[in-house]
Amino acid sequence: MVKIMYKINILFILFLIQLKIQAQTVDLTEIGLKDVIRTNTLLDTNLPKESFLIRNSSYYYNTQNPSWRKIMITKLGLLYINQDNNKLPYGYNDGNMGNSVGKQKLYSSQLNLQWGRIYLQIAPEKIIANNESFDRLPLNFDGTQNGDGYWPRYYSMLENVIENTIQIGSKETNFLGQSSLKYNTKNISFGISNENLWWGPGIYNSLILTNNAPGFLHFTINTHKPITNSFGNFEWQIIGGNLSNSNTEPIYNDNSYARPYYIPKLNQDRYLTGLIITMQPKLIPNLYIGIANVAYMYKKNIRNSDEYTPFINFNKPSELNNRPTFGSFFFKYNFPKDHAEFYLEYGRNNKAATPVNIFEDSIPIGYVGGVRKIFPLGSSLRYGGIMINMEVTQMHLNNPNQIWDKDLITKKTSWYTNSFITQGYTNSGQILGSYIGPGSNAQNLQISWIKASKKIGIGIERVIHNQDFYYYNYYNGLKFPGPNFKYWADLIYNISFRWDIGNFIFSADYKNSNSYNYMWTKIGDGGIYGPSDTDKTNIQINFAIKYVILKK
């Protein structure tokens, strides 16, 4: 065992010494690689079908003939990720990696052990980040060019109701990473875990849980294999765990015009509990449907033992504020003959979703919808196929009455924010759900050549940041300056690459971002419609390498 680990580490270090580029991608995380399996089930209709609606970083384990006589090593792995942002602290769906300018590196090793039905996954992660300064709004920016009360409105709607850190301040951090300890029956796992979780059918976004934020320590009871009965195949997961605070002040608190409006957050431990259930109906074998909900609260406010569970999420209204709850319905439908899939997630952010309340009028809703189609190159799988991905995410509030009241005061009802639990729905300063954040919308288009684990693709993404704040600041009765087309929009072009050679998997990604009206502002001589000094660009070059040995 020691000799094997020694040889692997030597090979890994020698290889990394030769690298001359800086980069990162999420493709080589376990959640990212499970999408490779999902893609291949569309290309090869003979592969067994899974729902892929509940994703984590657990490696598959053998429950057929578990042996208590010896401890088996089922997987060895090493992961290196290197990310470089040249101008803006951009990053998302990258787990423990934070928003940082300059080089940021992740080192991770993974060891999977199985003893009978006990399964241990040791996968710690180390993050080293330069965290360089970047060109942000000037310190003397008082906001009057962009609204009569830009800073008080910004703080009341964002910084004082969510801990969504613009730039993570840590230079070097150690994490438990994707580690877990579980006991497995034939279909169900019981255990504790620090893994990232992804709930729902979305590829780029999901309303409830994604790998955008660092994983948090939680207990889990979940199916690792579908449970089959006369109605169909069922999968589910129940979790409960502690969320961490970043304990960092907003980055603009050093601006004397902004700081007076900041309300310090309570440094209280938070607890999150959630539930997801999916079903593949027996009568409709290509349909997968599900429901998910979560609730979070300060631990000091937990009064009864049932509040540690998600079962009361449906009858404990969020209007009580001390236990905000939200949820979603979703489905995925496969078209095997057409090598395609269509999916939709639809949710509300102020109450657990049910068939009765999901389509009520005047409620804060959001959705993620997408389609994926593969065009095989030839009748065999030898040449792979061309894949097209399209996904749309909407999280802004549709009705102004949901954003502000008759006195023009914000209602603070945007996704993931909360006026009582002022860290909002975050862990370590990053959002647990969709990376685009409160009030935002996104559109993604990707075209790729794929073959097994290999991929070469190009794409374009458009993100409109927090339309709720934009409308609140510019459309709610101000006499000056009014709606001057100051929405904050990012247009991102990317080229992606993934290739496997033996036990190595390489991945690279190049993103060129054009950010218009950064922080919803226009500064300079460009006028109402012209360019602004707050128009910014960013180049993110990513590279990752993974070395894996699996027990056959």
Give your account of this protein's structure.
With 552 residues, the protein is mainly beta. The chain has a single domain (2-550), classed as Porin (Beta Barrel), CATH 2.40.160.130. Helix content is 9%, strand content 38%. The protein is built from four helices and 25 strands. The chain has an 18-stranded antiparallel β-barrel. Strands 1-9 form a two-stranded antiparallel sheet. Strands 19-20 form a two-stranded antiparallel ribbon. Strand 7 (180-184) and strand 8 form a beta hairpin. The protein is globular, with a radius of gyration of 23 Å.
Q: Which architecture would the CATH scheme give at its second level?
A: Beta Barrel
Name the poorly predicted regions: 1-26
Write out the CATH superfamily name. Answer: Capsule assembly protein Wzi
* Shape verdict: globular
Class based on secondary structure composition and strand pairing: mainly beta
CATH overall fold name: Porin
How many domains, as an integer? 1
* Beta-strand content: 35-45%
**CATH class call:** Mainly Beta
